Amino acid sequence: xxxxxxFLIATTLGxxxxxxxxxxxxxxxxxxxxxxxxxxxxxxASPIFISVDEWPGVQLAAKDFAADINRVTSVKPSLTNYTAxxxxxxxxxxxxxxxxxxxxxxxxxxxxxxxxxSASSILPREPQISSPATSDTSGALKPxxxxxxxxxxxxxxxxxxxxxxxxxxxxxxxxGQWEAYLGRTVKNPLPGVSExxxxxxxxxxxTIYGLYDLSEQFGVSPWYYWADVVTTTQKSLYITSPGCxxxxxxxxxxxxxxxxxxxxxxxxxxxxxxxxxGKPFNHxxxxxxxxxxxxxxxxxxxxxxxxxxxxxxxxxxxPLADYYGVVMxxxxxxxxxxxxxxxxxxxxxxxxxxxxxxxxxxAFWLQGAQRAKNYESVYTMGxxxxxxxxxxxxTNIDLLEGVIVNQTKIFKQVYGEDIDPAxxxxxxxxxxxxxxxxxxxxxxxxxxxxxxxxxxxxxxxRFPYIEERNRTGGAGVYYHFxxxxxxxxxxxxxxxxLAKVQQQLSLALxxxxxxxxxxxxxxxxxxxxxxxFFLGFGYNNTRWAAPSGVSTYVNxxxxxxxxxxxxKAAKVEEIVGNLTRxxxxxxxxxxxATTYSLYNYxxxxxxxxxxxxxxAASTSVYNSxxxxxxxxxxxxxxxxxxxxxxxxxxxxxxxxxxxxxxxxRLSTNQLADQVEEYFEKDFDIEQQxxxxxxxxxxxxxxxxxxxxYYWQQPMTNTMPAVNRVQSRKKALAGVMRIVPExxxxxxxxxxxxxxxxxxxxxxxxxxxxxxxxxxxxxLDVGAGGPTPFTFTVSTNSTWLKLSTTKGSxxxxxxxxxxxxxxxxxxxxPIGTSIALVTLTAKASGERDLAVNTYFKAIKNEPPNGFKGxxxxxxVISIEAAHTTKSNNKVxxxxxxxxxxLGRTVSAVTPLPLGDQSFAVGTGPTxxxxxxxxxxxxGKGNVSVxxxxxxxxxxxxxxxxxxxxxxxDSLPAVKVxxxxxxxxxxxxxxxxxxxxYVANNIIKNSTIFNGITPGAHTLKIGMIEPGVAxxxxxxxxxxxxxxxxxxPESIRI
Length: 1052
Hints:
alpha/beta; six-stranded mixed sheet; 38 strands; hydrolase; Hex-like_dom2; hydrolase activity; Gylcosyl hydrolase 115 C-terminal domain-containing protein; GH115
């Protein structure tokens, strides 16, 4: 009996924990519990009641809510308009905006050759909601059941007013709040109703979020349309006590920016929502997007703008946004709610030059304000040039401040002279040259939100200083998941690490940049997971604020999207972590044939091995899913993996091809064939996406991404250059080519990489080290032409173990790798041992060809009792999170690991975030014990290289990013990794195809003198917040070039 009780408890807990809301406090179960409210049971659903005087957007969400219940259970609840006692019908006004700013547009607004100025004739009809159960306006009902769901907005819905009156429900927690909601089960809320679950919003979006929160917990993904996520079905639905609630969001306005929408999104939208020739971004497109934004608990949108004019392309676009409940804005270069330059080219007059065309530009802006005044909007203020450029080289601050003054006068003209401009939401985006205007002294009224921008690559340039944090307009963030510009566009598929997004947004919140967040999402589709994290973090940052928050988010996201078990969700979490880490190392558009070292640390081969393993892991999950779920997994996980892995093969094989051509290896040609094969496969993968679900997503992966010649996207994909050798010609040096590990050189014969002279270079040597993380070394034996041959491998040493002693090479199998290892390090003396290895080729009609190579084994031993990292092959490499001593805490601050951030493992940063800084040597420290056997050139010097996550000097000039480096008791050295930058510009080494943002790392080297071989302690000290360190490399003379740095050293 006890076992049965335990089974029932475990089963119930299992049903309770299998919920689908990301980060929400769970209030849904799929089995009946004590005090739970029944939504669906035994094929019957509780009816839903809403007031006739409710916001139309809430009515739309209620209709979605009913449809969502049907998606989950195949039971559709009734949705009924109910007129409460003393209630009044909804206003006939077109506007759904509750503020005092919604007065009608004056009839004197110009009608000819002007922007659309009236929405009354073009608003969509209200959603079709069934008539009340009875026409009795007293509110008497005779529902089919005793339990109902009641939905409404506080101080808007007469139904909610009556429920509160009848039940004495305490709504003080949401009263007067922004976008908050309360869900509670109440008794006898209405005549004839014994029980109801009531969802009350503090305002229209609060109510909408209350509905969509439950929909998500029931199992309906916000991405059911945009990523084809399949809804997991349930027989029953219950809301647990006390219900779901949420207070005011962390960030007031949370939005996305559709940008750089050609070719992919624009082509897809034109095919999907028009006859193939119409305006692609019409109300059919936007209605889908508005719903998505609200389901994600966003509330704000900058519409597509490069080839579109939001307000003119379709006159339904703007009023429909307000109807749904989405706040509209325009991008940083489009003032006064107008598409610029597109609408100015249609409706404006003269040049876009405020110094010479003030009157016409003001008239243009007036029309934008008149068109937007009835709708909830955030106005972009100021003025920039067309095409994301400055106005001119001689733009002056007085002129720009005058622009703001005149834009404010336009508000008075449109909204009334008695309007307080502070009640009209406004932003000034400090992007590119505009940041310099601010630094040079330009100021705007403090009620205007200052929107601080990143560098287009996810590094926020500046945050509010302490003295700026009390502005009434507050501050916000303009962020990028997509960009067009130097050093290269990146528009294809996701290359953003959520851990980096979390770190940057956490910094923003710690400095009160919380009024408005907007992220450039390009074509939307490649960034689904990242968009949801961005908006969700802005909605409630406490859900994902912990260092482990990103892992938790991805795990819950995988569970919701693919209905995975705990183990499989953890597997997908790992898969996504690897995908984003590999792709964040360097944008696809910046990768070339030599990005990863082709011969040092086996870097390129390891990259390919990792991609192959990741592809296999993703394929395993993909194949395990029910067929209906595979399209969504393909879009959200599998496609970016197989496409990125394929791209890595293209470039790395091209690099190996080029290198082997210089080595006179016949396998050059095989690699050329492989590059071409994978290049064509790239298009096959694109078509696989486009053919999903009968072509639903045709064109969404049209973006070119191979063969950049400069910053702008190529007009077609171009295969990287490959070489071929003559397949019938023998190499001058003979039939066999020998290439040792660690060099691009080849033997026998001459090669520019064998030695500095390029000829008469002597025999090659490879080095084995008992403390190298790579335990063996190899020799590649290759064909030097069409002649087949056999070869033998021999050594004069007993301690060297060879993986093979013979082999055969032919045009069909032109390569074989021979590994050498030390069979027993204990048998070798301390110091250096050398073994001769001879490779001899025998070919018909050819004289024997012998090549001698040397294996050098270096054995070192630290003293007994040492614990820490040990030098191998002249280098000590340490992942920053792998400290050898506990991190100390100073004034409540300690170095903390950020899992998943960075190019290799993770990063560490001082937390909690604040404004606290420390003098050199006084802050919290990271400590690493290490043992070195060598110094640079034997002169007692070592170089400590710190790999820091890219970041800007976001505080004032007195507090640039800084940390200290110290070895033992030597004086600690202050490191300021980023040189000063001009506001709006970049510091030295920042941009360019080999700059900090391209490499996604900042490396700084500090030389320490007087270091002897032996045990030492390295200390990294905090000076300023915001520093995130990924890796530390100590060069004692053996460091060689690579992109990611040497693999981590052995730790004992």
